[in-house]
Design goal:
By secondary structure, this protein is of the alpha/beta class. The chain contains eleven helices and eight strands. It has an eight-stranded parallel barrel, surrounded by six helices.
Length: about 260
């Protein structure tokens, strides 16, 4: 039985004041919510405020990226140890914006994945095809490559905390979400690939969430798919009411 997970990716949005104002409302709305794991990934500058703001709740906090080294001359980078010091427990790795804007390769994603797991952070590994790749019928090939390279060198015993986020690049921030059928097919393929690589037990305990224009109006249909264990939400997670409605809708999956 996998507990559904609904994660907010605030990207480069929200000052400390804005983050605190969000939490004031969101904590009240979610005070009686059960049966779902909630994760919030604020920008680095709001991490400690968000960690303080979720005290006494089960809401977890994530970084939006890490560098793989523990410390050193890496200007602008945040290490797993620095992230852990803020109180964050999760980290998003390989988001398509990191891959496309900042040039993160599958090799870099792999180094970050290994480092996160070594230091005890729960990674949310983002994978997904571009529109061109989908139109060329390469979706499943791309997903296999991103999983196999991103998780290279890891063993089944390492991956229990892993969350995989299937985020088709063409659906992120566009308002065009994948249909339940498209997402369901991709998620089944991801589960099969994890099973082949790590065995049934390890693969069965990983959560695979969908990301890409998730809203209150489409989350139920998506999580009704057998292999969709929740959602990673960008734009619609910035407003506490809207994110709460997604949490409510994503709470009941079929698993
Ligand atoms: C994301 O940034 O991971 C994302 C899925 O964004 P959006 O929900 O805005 O498409």
């Amino acid at each position: 039985m996998r507990t559904p997970l609904i994660a907010a990716n605030w990207k480069m949005h929200k000052t400390v004041d804005e983050a605190e104002a969000f939490l004031k409302v969101f904590r009240r709305l979610t005070k009686d919510v059960t049966g779902v794991d909630i994760v919030i990934a604020p920008p680095f500058t709001a991490l400690t405020a968000v960690v303080a703001g979720v005290q006494g709740s089960s809401i977890a906090v994530a970084g939006q990226d890490i560098f793989w080294e523990a410390e050193g001359a890496f200007t602008g980078a945040i290490s797993p140890t620095l992230l852990l010091q803020t109180g964050a427990t999760h980290v998003i790795i390989g988001h398509s914006e990191r891959r496309q804007v900042f040039g993160d390769s599958d090799e870099a994603v792999n180094l970050k994945m290994r480092s996160a797991l070594d230091f005890g952070l729960a990674p949310i590994l983002c994978i997904g095809e571009t529109l061109e790749e989908r139109n060329n019928d390469e979706t499943l090939i791309v997903l296999t490559r991103q999983i196999c390279q991103g998780l290279d060198g890891l063993a089944g015993r390492n991956i229990a905390p892993l969350v995989v986020a299937y985020e088709p690049v063409w659906a992120i921030g566009t308002g065009h979400h994948a249909t339940a059928e498209q997402a369901g097919q991709a998620h089944s393929h991801i589960r099969t690939t994890l099973r082949e690589k790590f065995g049934k037990g390890a693969a069965g305990s990983c959560r695979i969430v969908y990301g890409g224009s998730v809203k209150a109006g489409n989350v139920r249909e998506l999580v009704a798919q057998p292999e969709i264990d929740g959602a990673l939400v960008g734009g619609a997670s910035l407003d506490p009411e809207s994110f709460f409605e997604i949490v409510e809708g994503g709470r009941v999956t079929t698993v």
